[in-house]
Amino acid sequence: MEQELMRIGVSLPDNLLTKFDSIIDQRGYSSRSEGIRDAIRSYMTHYEWMTEVQGRRVATITLIYDYMKRGLTGSLTEIQHEYSSVIKTSIITHLDPENCLEVIVLDGDSQDIRSVAEKLMSLKGVKYVKLNTAQPPESNDQIDEESGKNLDLG
């Protein structure tokens, strides 16, 4: 049985649409709609995977944001203070007069870490957010200093 297609409208900045059009052309999509459907499916798969992560995690959140966006830096600071129990450190570098790259290192409950990422992602002026998580080694595990790999000694 064929599903009914729903029409939606999306507003995008010109540079984002131009880049998207280039990608869908390179990948051989027949239309923007096909590319958008694929991108939405990919986003949903990633979101579902992240909601299944449970327990303690170590993580990094990488974000790029518009430093000049009014009120954004204050909102970023408020979120980081709200989650100071899981945020261990962060580093900011200025990419150009308007854009900053920030990497936040976290350690704590996966739900809190996911909440931080989602709140940061929802802010206007945030251009990129990437959350990476890993399960920390157990207390009886050790790291092989030469290879950097986790060794299970228990």
Write the element-wise H/E pattern from the N-terminal end onward.
Answer: HHEHEEHEEE
Helix and strand composition category = alpha+beta
Name the overall outline.
globular
Question: Number of helical runs?
Answer: 4
Rg, alpha carbons: 19 Å
What is the number of strand segments? 6
How would you describe the overall organization of this protein?
This protein has 154 residues and is α+β, with helices and mostly antiparallel strands. Helices cover 38% and strands 29% of the residues. The chain is built from four helices and six strands; from the N terminus they run ααβαββαβββ. The strands form two sheets. The protein has a four-stranded antiparallel β-sheet with strand order 2-3-1-4, with helices on one face. Strands 5-6 form a two-stranded antiparallel ribbon. The longest helix is centred in the first third of the chain and has 21 residues, at 32-52.
Throw out a few tags for this protein.
4 helices, alpha+beta, disordered C terminus, two-stranded antiparallel sheet, four-stranded antiparallel β-sheet, 154 residues
Topology:
Layout: H1 14-27, H2 32-52, E1 56-66, H3 72-82, E2 87-94, E3 99-109, H4 110-121, E4 126-134, E5 141-143, E6 150-152
Antiparallel strand pairs: 1-3, 1-4, 2-3, 5-6
